[in-house]
Amino acid sequence: MCSIIGYFGHSEAAPTLVRGLGRMEYRGYDSVGVLTGSDNKFVLKKGVGKVSEVNAKLGLDQLHGSMGIGHTRWATHGKVTTKNAHPHLSNSGKIAIVHNGIIENYEELKSNLQKNGYKFQSETDTEVIVNLIQQNFDETSDIKQSIIKTVANLKGHYSFVVIFENGTLVAARFHEPLIVGVENDNYYLSSDVLGFIEKTDDAIYVDNEDFVIVNNTGMHIFDFDGTPVKYQITKVSKEFADVYKGDYAHFTLKEISEQADTILRTEKNNQFQQFINNIKQSKNLYITGSGTSYNAAEIAKYLMSKFAKIKVDTVISSELPFSPDYIEQDSTLIAISQSGESADVLEAVRIAKKSNTSILSIVNHLNSSLSQESSLVIGLNCGPEIGVAATKSFTSQLAILYKITDELCNGCINPDWVKVSAAISQILSSQSNIEGIAKNLKEISDIYILGRGIHLSIAREAALKLKELSYIHAEGIAGGELKHGPLALMDSNVYVIIINPNDSTYTDTMNSANEIKARGAKIIGISDKESDIYDYWIEIPPIDEPLYPIIEIIPIQLLSYYTALEKKTNPDYPRNLAKSVTVK
Ligand code: BG6
Q1: Atom 3 (ligand 1): residue with closest C-alpha?
Q2: Is the CB of 364 under 6 A from ligand 1?
Q3: What is the pTM of this model?
């Protein structure tokens, strides 16, 4: 997934474009590029690396011109090179493009264009779009018609911004996010409100299969057939303007540290009761998600079957296309997604809709594509999450799922959120022990995380955090499965994290710890009860049994973060990853 941005207005475009790209860098950070236009001339600079690095080298924010486009890349087609970095120019050099998404039929389109004499500089699918626009523009001499003809031939999921020599900007959306920022007669075209949030909180969430034209006559929106579209300006909630690290070294540490507050900010919104009624009336209930959100789905399954006696089926979003009939007719699907833009989750929802399934979603971005696809939506209300590894959004997802389950079982859990928040604060206030343990993990290549019952999903989430942040091969293991295979991996070179709160799983988990210890592995115990069996003990406060999963993940988020620092990886922008992957 990449970030795209465009600006048309009265001030210099480049500084705004570069700052906007900096705030959207979590979407992709392989390369960056900016192009500005003035007096029918383009100036283009691009390079491999992060916004701050490339800007320092090339002075991207110094380009002249009051209109321009910019891009940060998460490579899908073509290696991470300057040639493949965006923006890309058409053969005439009079049209330039930045693009997010994938054009599935680009090879076919490319060979047709090559037959018509077009040459290609890069390996990207993007260059095909801009040359197709040029071919259609040369035929019609009409910008609007050239876009209509082009989108009619593109297959895949995309959003792009193009700039024409005369300064006109056009942006189109087909399943990938596109938002217009309006500041009097200055216009911003962006993948995310973060692109322009410093300038305005007046936004237009462009609908699917619409395109926007911005020029001296103002801003106009059309559908892909060219019919004018009415639009509504939405005020972006101020919390999404808070994209500053403050005194924290990294967004990841800031977001981990916010959880004592964010856990208290999850609320039962005006759709909560309908959400509950819908679940109660559902014939079959499924929950889906990707990455961390899928681990939250697994926790929900456990909670609803244990406490609300409701049978739930979970499905990994990216797996549903391979068993589309898995979701029965007239069912209910809860889709969990921090961004609300993960392509796999959106695809799963579209498949489910074909079996007349009602879609309920839990998201952090209320104006996301997933919200638009859902009949009922509950927001996490935890503010923007910039760090690529999900942290505060996970505990907020859990808080919402606990509130749903508690409502379904008529208050049988009765969670004390103030107590949960206090427990999180206590863990956050004693980080030095965890920092010390991280020093020991610097050189290791494998780590296993063991949990039983509801803690197995936390063990899997823990493994994901360690993979994402510290690049260590990590695996979540069901305590009882140890002796059926994984025990063969245990020796003195191995570290095992034991998730072992003093609850109904304690004794069995202790038995597993003894089996592991007997093979010489080093044990990191996460528990409210100390034990000699642990080589390293990370203490968590005692809390009501059902609530341990919410607090026991915090020390592992911190351990993954500090291990990343030990290994000199960038915790906020782990290699090869992106905050939410909007391509399948
Ligand atoms: C990945 C992120 O790209 O997407 C993970 O790196 C995240 O942290 C996963 O859990 C799913 O994202 P979302 O936005 O659908 O919850």
Answers
A1: 580
A2: no
A3: 0.87
Pocket test for ligand 1, best of 579, 581, 583 (most atoms within 8 A of CB): 579
- In our burial notation (b when 16+ CB lie closer than 10 A, e otherwise), range 161-195 reads bbbbbebbbbbbbbbbbbbbbbeeebbbbbbbbbb
Q: Which residues pair with 4 in a beta bridge?
A: 71
| pLDDT tens track for 244-300 | 788 899 999 999 999 999 999 998 888 899 999 999 999 999 999 999 999 999 999
Q: Where are the alpha helices (DSSP H) in 471-522?
A: 506-517
For 308-333, the pLDDT digits (tens) are 999 999 999 999 999 999 999 999 99
Annotated catalytic residue 412: no
SS (H, E, C) 400-424: HHHHHHHHHCCCCCCCCHHHHHHHH
Q: Is the CB of 339 under 6 A from ligand 1?
A: yes
The DSSP result for 185-225, as a single string, is: TEEEEESSGGGTTTT--EEEEPPTTEEEEEETTEEEEEETT
2 given a catalytic annotation: yes
Catalytic residue among 45, 465, 522, 579: 579
Strand pairing of 218-223 and 186-190? unpaired
Contact call for residues 317 and 291 (beta carbons, < 8 A): no
Atom of ligand 1 nearest to the CA of 289: 15
Could you tell me which residues come within 8 angstroms of residue 117 by beta carbon, excluding any fewer than 6 positions away? none
Report the DSSP beta bridge partners of residue 183.
186
Which residue CA neighbors atom 7 of ligand 1 most closely?
Answer: 291
- Quick check: 366 and 379 in contact, CB under 8 A? yes
Give 1's strand partners: none
Ligand 1 centroid to Cα of residue 151, in Å, is 29
- Quick one: which atom of ligand 1 is closest to the CA of 317? 15
Q: Is the CB of 577 under 6 A from ligand 1?
A: yes
Strand 234-235 to 3-8 pairing? unpaired
pLDDT tens digits for 371-418?
Answer: 989 999 999 999 989 999 999 999 999 999 999 999 999 999 999 999
Q: What is d(CA 235, CA 95) in angstroms, rounded to the nearest whole number? A: 32
Q: How far is the CA of 214 from the centre of ligand 1 (A)?
A: 33
